[in-house]
What we know:
By secondary structure, the chain is mainly β. Helix content is 0%, strand content 44%. The protein is built from no helices and eight strands. 24% of the residues are buried.
Amino acid sequence: TLAYVTSTNGEATATTAAYGGLLYRIVFSTITTSAPANLWDITVKDADGADVLEGLGANLVSNTMPYDVHQTLTNTFMPLLVDGTFVLAVTNALSTKNGSIILYIR
């Protein structure tokens, strides 16, 4: 789980411990009393700078939280082989907004 609280510029960053395996599911969650602005963005980048969310963290709408990205036949997200640390970046979320991202890695 990656927790974040945005600064006054509406941005936040966090770095995870090292993980290895297949990334199967991602859940974005916000605290309803302090939800980010609509159309906020999240990236989770690996050591090579690739966004493991494959762009699915762009333009999120706060009132649809929690938002779950997982492998289905109708969703473009497929399991990714991952290894190493990840850097979370939240942008466009307004000041002092918080939430978390859960990465399910097997």
